[in-house]
Amino acid sequence: MSQMTEAVATGTARHSPMQISQTDVAIDVIGMHKWYGDFHVLRDINLKVMRGERIVIAGPSGSGKSTLIRCVNRLEEHQEGQIFVNGTELTADLKRIDEVRREVGMVFQHFNLFPHLTILQNLTLAPIWVRGIPKAEAEATAMHYLERVKIPEQANKFPGQLSGGQQQRVAIARSLCMQPRIMLFDEPTSALDPEMVKEVLEVMISLAEDGMTMICVTHEMGFARQVANRVIFMDQGQIVEQNDPENFFGNPQHERTKLFLSQILH
Amino acid sequence: MAVQDNMSGSAPRPSLLNDPVIRGIIYQVLVAAAVIAFFGWIVLNTAQNLAAQNKTTGFDFLFRTAGFDISFTLFPWSRTSLYWQAFLAGLLNTLLVAIIGIFFATVLGFTLGIARLSSNWLIARVATVYIETIRNIPLLLQLFFWYFAVLKGMPAVRQSFALPMDIFINQRGLMVPRPLPDGEFIWVLVALLAAFAAAVALGVWATRVRTATGRYPSQVVLGAKIADALVSFLVALLAFSLLANMISGMTTPIVLGASALIAAVSVTRFAPFGRAILAFVFGLTILYALLTSMFPAVPQLVVAAGSALAALMLAWVAFERASDRPPGEGRFPLALLILVAVGVPAFVYWATGAQLAFEIPMLERFNFRGGVQLPPELVALVFGLTIYTAAFIAENVRGGISAVSKGQTEAAQSLGIKEGDRLRLVIIPQAMRVIVPPLTSQYLNLTKNSSLGAAIGYPELVNVFTGTTLNQTGKAIEVIALTMAVYLTFSLLTSAFMNWYNGRVALVER
Amino acid sequence: MTTDTAYIRDTFVPAKPAPGRTGGPILWLRTNLFATPTDSILTVLGVVFLLWAVPPIYNFIIGQAVFPGGTVEDCRVEGAGACWAYIHARFNFFIYGFYPIDQYWRPNTVFVLGAALILPLLIPSAPFKRINAVLFFLVFPVISFYLLSGGVFGLPYVPTEQWGGLLVTLIISLVGIICSIPLGILLALGRQSDLPIIKTLCVMFIELWRAVPLITVLFMASIMLPLFMPTGTNVDKLLRALVGVTLFASAYLAEVVRGGLQALPRGQYEAGASLGLSYWKRTSFIILPQAIKHVIPGIVNNFIALFKDTSLVSIVGIFDLLNTVQAASSDIDWASPTQAVTGYVFAAFMFWIFCFAMSRYSLWMEHRLDTGHKR
Ligand SMILES: Nc1ncnc2c1ncn2[C@@H]1O[C@H](COP(=O)(O)OP(=O)(O)OP(=O)(O)O)[C@@H](O)[C@H]1O
Ligand SMILES: [Mg+2]
């Protein structure tokens, strides 16, 4: 853990409030509840994310972190309350959902690359078939993002031939190829070996530097300190505490937060 | 197992007998000698036995007259035909039943496999019960059931059941119309093939252009619009004609007018309404016809109300689906391709004045005249093989689809890839890699199992050759060797295909 | 610290029931049958199908059926269902074939003995596995053979031609599996061996038998086996079928065992070699026990297939369960429109019970092995 914090702390990013525009709301979740059958997973979630803001969500296992960010691009549907993404409300309307999903990239814990396609094909699939971008152009964009995640030489390999960290970087590049305005990360580093965590976090930090709106579920507290504007702590399906990283780590208020931090930091 | 000589490296060698290499050679020599001795003994015995029975060996019998009847052959057969022709007749009959069976078993098996994964509890349960029942009952028993209990329990010729499209079923099998194409009809067939090829080529080209430039070629988009309207018109015509059969007030002008209206609407943004109406009409007419024949005891009014209700639901689904995917430049021009594949041959048919008459089976005093008679053995065998193999195919399909992790769907969804593209580009290619190899072995199994047709008298290879021919000629060794060679060939071809396929699609791993 | 950044929840939100959902059966219906419009349509179609298919089946099997106690006249009534009275009357024939009635105790003893030996063998936690296996695989077949055929210890001789019904079906499948296990293991080892001649022979044997349908194997056994034997040897008809079935089954079993051998991590082979054990010791004490344990589900599935396949011996004139049912269906005394169907349904049910139970067992074992693996 501490080793990680050091690694990340060498980066230069420090959240700069200028990038946040107070008038431009990227995501607005209002009084949202979700149930799995009879199980009340998310309870009264209220969350407003401004454009350019970086949010880290932490919390014990089963607290509903994944469920929350999956609701934001409607991989899960909510039952009560409202979710607005880029001003569009998420309803059962498939067309609108696809529109929203184009603007929201998602990176999964287990990468979920398409194993039957090469890296380049993984990256160009959605631009070609969703955005209708000509192949040559899509490939150029793909190469650009592969360079950005520092693995252009892997373009013609298959996912199975890459290491975990490389795969996760490809997954990030795949999302970026759709030029999303918001990125969601669901524990992107927790399936990786320690030395690979660093390379993925570096990519995420550089994204943050570029002002990407991000919501990250992660237990990398070093990353949270360095990059986040806000840290949200969830427990039993609700947001228990929320604060800027300094105060969140330095001066936690809620009992649950204190307990959680004491467990995770020691 | 390379480990066998792993020990040789370091240990000193006390004696030659303990050297693994030498020992291996000795083992092999011993085994080879034993096998040779065993075969020698068999050959000797066989020679003695054959000599005692005054029999000769050799394949010259193949060119002698067979002198028996075969109830069903794909080429003209008479008692003067030769034994090799009998072999061929049996082989062709085996292939015939295998091909028909493979086709139907694939359709049924994929349906059941998908049904078993359905989120609908009832559908999944029905499929499971089917699979668990059919898999656990011997195929031969099922064949006996279909042949002796069902087909032999069919009414006699005079009381034949009439099925739709002038098909009749009775104890003697299935009577189907015989197509009688005239001289010009060959052009229609040529056009059919050419148009199909053209449609495929058009589809491939359109997809290429779409990938390369980001949009479908403008001619194709225009063509697709026209095709949409035309196909809508034809489909509507069919739907309203069906309705006209049910309701007396629908005259031809009304049918034509309504169809034209639907066609016109189909290129506007009100297309979903047209779709909904068509779905309603199809649902109503087909369900009504089906239900009245399934439940003759239920009053017609109830059936009509029930079908109308179900059709309404169908219309709703069609409406929702159509409004989710409005007609647009970005859609694959399926209607155009269908129009090319169907329309061009239809035009040739009309232009050349070709005729395709059907000789309809007619019940005369004692039997049917005309048409093609499919023997009950063939029908029972196809039925049995299809139903049995489908249960196994369904399990393969289920396994293949569930092998594609949910994460794949979610990744595609989160990129905004639409459902159709998601299936076509992400899910199906991955599922097929898992499904194809076991599917091929099911095809091989079906072909091998068709040999059970011998037990119900279908003249396939084992029946005609290993049965009758062997009995008449007494050439046991030759006949059985030939039969085995045929099945061995099937098997080798199958594994050659599988190796090729596996090599082609194997996922590259580290 | 701005007000919209810092937030601390003071009141905990308790779980509440989902809106518009009453839970229980209605929730279940909504999620499982009417989740989407398409689902609703499928449900309606499914219900229609069941309404159409189930009542006639129910009427045939129970509603309109003639149960034991009924007469053949009842079965001949128009619209009568299954003629269970006929099954009841010919039940002994279906179970024992032509076995002499006063000797039924002999097959019965074999049934009881077999059940008593195989049940503890199938239960993983039952003790004395080794003794149990020896008794079942070696002692039981010998005892059964002498008990059934007689001619010793004052038991009257019963030729195999008189054996039949379920008895023969069970005999063929059990003998088939018992004999094919050692043969299959040897073949699998041979195929994995790096002695080229042995490997080639095994591959040829396995691939040949797997390529041809069982029916040709049975034809071959019943026609060619007598030809291969020295002149004058008389090979029993049942024995010929047994030879055919065993050879056939061993090829399939070999492939199952090979799967188990290949699934073993290489370390196991190397560990055995590094202990300095000889090939046979290594194989029989380290490799095989593990490989076999992993392929038990596969062996059971093979056994299910074999059990169904035994019905093919009726083609070479052996009176197994299917053949007795088939023969009895032309019994004039019980001639009725539903006679044949009733027989098939009965036979199907008998086969189904055995196969279904075994497939559940194999699934259960698979599950057990899976979880055992992780621990
Ligand atoms: N598809 C589902 N059906 C029913 N319950 C679910 C489903 N998915 C998740 N849950 C439950 O919802 C709760 C929240 O799950 P979620 O995955 O959001 O937790 P999490 O905070 O992401 O945990 P982790 O840190 O382990 O990933 C858990 O109790 C889980 O068991
Ligand atoms: Mg999670």
Task: Fill in the keyword field for this structure.
heterotrimer; B: 510 residues; mainly alpha; MetI-like fold; four-stranded antiparallel β-sheet; two-stranded antiparallel ribbon; 15 helices; 5% strand; disordered N terminus; C: 375 residues; 2 domains; binds adenosine-5'-triphosphate; binds magnesium ion
Write up this protein:
Chain A has 266 residues and is an alpha/beta fold. Chain A is built from ten helices and ten strands. In chain A, strands 6-7-8-3-9-10 form a six-stranded mixed sheet, with helices on both faces. The longest helix of chain A has 16 residues, at 194-209. Chain A is globular and about 55 Å long. Among the domains of chain B are: 2-52; 83-141 and 375-505, MetI-like fold, CATH 1.10.3720; 238-332. Chain B is built from 15 helices and eight strands. Mean pLDDT of chain B is 85; it is low at 1-11. Chain C has two domains: 24-82, no CATH class; 85-99 and 158-369, MetI-like fold. Chain C is built from 15 helices and one strand. The interface between A and B is large, with 40 and 32 residues. β10 (238-243) of chain A pairs antiparallel with β1 (7-8) of chain C, so a sheet runs across the interface. The structure holds adenosine-5'-triphosphate and magnesium ion.
